[in-house]
Amino acid sequence: MTDRQLTVLFMPESAYGPTNNCIGIGDVLLKRGHRVVFAAEASWRGKLATLGFGEDLVHLTPPPAGEVATEADAGQFWKDFIRDTAPEFRKPTIEQLDTWVKPVWAELIAGARYCEPQLKAIIERTRPDVIVEDNVVGFPALTTAGVPFVRIVSCNPLEVKDPGIPPAFSGYPAADSSGWSAFTAEYDRTHRELWADFNEFVTSCGARPLPDLEFIHEGDLNLYVYPELADYVRTAPLPATWHRLESSVRETDEKFELPAVLADRPADSALIYFSLGSLGSADVELMRRVIAALAGTKHRYIVSKGPLHAEIELAPNMWGAEFVPQTSVIPLVDLVITHGGNNTTTEALHFGKPMIGLPLFWDQYDNAQRADELGLGVRLAPYTFTDDDLRGAIDTLLGNAGLRERLAAEGERIRAADGLRHAADLIEAATR
């Protein structure tokens, strides 16, 4: 800890995962007496101030011609993007590189270009002692501000490349490298020109060149969120500037009381949490299909219905809402059914719960694969699984007493590592 009050400027990606991760760490710093300001995307207006943070927000896209900027729901752009491009998720991951992954990078880069002048003005107003970014794309203003720059990787750690681990976004197994080189070559083919153009922009803003085929710089301090239990074995250790956080689970969620429909359940009925995340749940047809498969089981379910909640009808053995306080819910359940987002994956392990992964995009394939290959869960194909596949995975995981005991013990170890405060300590130390 430090006796000096710091101004810490956070810039998370607009999606809930990175923003919630920064909220958790920022809350610890705030309680230590530091000034914490979020340069988040403008649709988060008011949602961060209620937690005690300063807000100096950015627009990542210009308003349509002839219109003024209006506030949308938090992360609305990406919710719409996921909904409109959901058919791409049915393709093998190598085929998504050109038709889904590259367009995502292009949108992120467009946002970085557009908000560069806004960020420079925010930094001038805020005068931070340290800047913390949780994103996959770089913003030159953050690395040229003359203060320590902290990078957080709250996606799967395959994002930090190594020849001994699978390529990011592939969902390929760690024990079988046969497809790695083809996937890496296709990534190079589809992304080389985009990267070169962005690198030219970055250097034109006075920042150092980007590493080859990387869209973000390393920081003076680099943190990644993944428990040792599930981490990958690298051919060489990461540099000393890199630190693993066993978990980073925010403590700002409200408490959760079980509704009567869930509390009054048969003795042989498990309690299960189902969420495809704020983005994945925009695929309403998939949500409905999973709900239909779960409706015929003896178990009870808490369902995070997401932004299109009004279009999703639950079965009698379920309770749900648009948003649920996930970090207060997971400790109560026996099993997590998830899209495989990094926050949900690491939170499940933090609380010692097995998981079923239904990966849809980005690093979700890697998280679901990692849980499956380590025996911590089961990976299913979200668009081709059968009802028997899903119900069988539930029965297998709930019936594995050894796994549940092991995860309970690992969860205690992960929680004892106290990733939130470890992150806050490292951020404070970066300013010395």
Structural notes for this entry:
By secondary structure, the protein is an alpha/beta fold. It has 14 helices and 13 strands. The strands form 2 sheets. The chain has a 7-stranded parallel sheet with strand order 3-2-1-4-5-6-7, with helices on one face. The mean pLDDT is 92.
Bin the strand percentage.
5-15%
Care to count the β-strands?
Answer: 13
DSSP helix count? 14
Give the averaged pLDDT, no decimals: 92
Order of helices and strands: EHEEHHEHEHEEHEHHEEHEHEHEHHH
Shape: globular
Oligomer: single chain
* Radius of gyration using CA atoms only: 21 Å
Largest sheet entry? 7 strands, parallel
Q: Report the helical percentage.
A: 25-40%
Query: Whole-Å distance between the termini?
Result: 11 Å
Q: Which structural class matches the secondary elements?
A: alpha/beta
Give a short overview.
The chain is of the alpha/beta class. It has 14 helices and 13 strands.
Sequence-ordered SSE layout with sheet pairings:
Layout: E1 7-12, H1 16-31, E2 35-38, E3 54-55, H2 76-85, H3 93-126, E4 130-134, H4 140-143, E5 149-153, H5 180-204, E6 221-225, E7 242-245, H6 260-263, E8 271-275, H7 277-280, H8 284-295, E9 300-304, E10 318-321, H9 326-329, E11 335-338, H10 342-350, E12 355-357, H11 364-373, E13 377-379, H12 387-398, H13 401-417, H14 419-429
Parallel strand pairs: 1-2, 1-4, 2-3, 4-5, 5-6, 6-7, 8-9, 8-11, 9-10, 11-12, 12-13
Keyword list:
globular; 13 strands; alpha/beta; 13% strand; single chain; six-stranded parallel sheet; 432 residues; 14 helices
